[in-house]
Model the fold of this input.
Amino acid sequence: MVQNDILSILNESEALNAKVFSLVRLKLLASLAALGSDGATYRELKAALDINDGVLFANLNVLKDMGYLTSGKITSEGKELELYTITTDGHDEWKRTRTWLCRFLHCGA
Amino acid sequence: MEADEDLAVQVPPLRSMNMEKRKKVIAFFKELGFEFNISRFDDRLIAQKLVCLLDLRGINLGYPCSIYVRGPYSPDLTDDLFGFTSEFESLETKARLSAAEKETAGDLGRIFGQKPVHLEVGATYGYYALRQNCNPLEALRQVKRLKPFYSEAQIALGISKAKEFLFRPTPKDLEELKMETGVWQRVSLKSLEK
Done:
């Protein structure tokens, strides 16, 4: 039986990684999950999400340390850029988080 | 039981439709002389923007684009590029382009070539102007917001190429242009007569 009471939904959050729940990290995971194996460069993330360098770099590193992102150098039109790609673990965590958020918000509506 | 039978009938055509759309994109790549290599970032970018520009020009390839952090982009196309890499890299296709499609591919190749910057700026501008119905100034603002790492000159050139590829002058536009410039033409002819 599916439990829809708020307490059950809140308790389900224990299966999630609490460290993902910051606005910047959610934005990064959501953005990179949509691009799959293609990934996005640092400069694209910075411009599109309007996040300053310090915050962006620190949060990308946290997600990398958790095994949710990988990064590597690529060359685009002769320029060396840093490319960030979501990992399978990152994808799974984003899916779990998203599913839970949908349930949580629907419950609160 | 009835639902299962329906599903059995529906699944093969869906797979065949997916293959068909993939093969059509490959036919466009072939026509454009675009030798795709999945390991090259610029090639993946070019593939995305070519499909998006064709979509904006009215050629529906079955890979709809929306705005993501990388500008107009199709995650479905990414899935296929990575899922069927050998087909894209070897340009393996039996799909043929119609005369109109060949003409469009010719325009696309002539105007943009395979320059990632022009394609990226052009597709982004076109998306905001046509899909989001932004006026030219707002579309420009959005391009600059998403692609601040490109120079003013690169943005200007990309936009000019997008306009050339996407905005075809109608007979009414041409008539208005003729009326607007007609006065000047007549004056210059008169001055030549003197």
Remarks:
- The mean pLDDT of chain B is 91.
- DSSP finds nine helices and two strands in chain B.
- The beta strands of chain B are 66-68, 71-73.
